[in-house]
């Protein structure tokens, strides 16, 4: 059963988010996937730093997946594919052993 979420008005510190990110990245699921780990780390760090412009497909392609300046996210599906893999991994509890990444 998923952990209970804090009330909407509860504040979670950047430190707590960073600590949880570290636990997730140390899990066996993410330890095996450098690309997925890099994407999760990038999305979390950019969100924490308040830089929403860097959360666009083009910027993610350049910054995370080291695509060249000619990268076109409409043609190259790398960012969409990896984002879908990340969402699926984070959503399905069966990907996490009991007690891991909590």
The parts where pLDDT drops under 50 for at least 5 residues are none
Query: What is the N-to-C succession of helices and strands?
Result: HHHHH
Put simply, the count of helices is 5
Beta-strand residue percentage: under 5%
Based on secondary structure, the structural category is: mainly alpha
**Shape, please?**
globular
Largest sheet entry = none
Mean pLDDT: 85
**How many whole angstroms does the radius of gyration measure?**
15 Å
Q: How widely separated are the two ends? A: 12 Å
Topology:
Elements: H1 14-26, H2 28-31, H3 34-48, H4 57-63, H5 78-91
Description:
There is one protein chain. The protein contains 5 helices and no strands. With 102 residues, the protein is mainly alpha-helical. It has a domain of 61 residues. The longest helix has 15 residues.
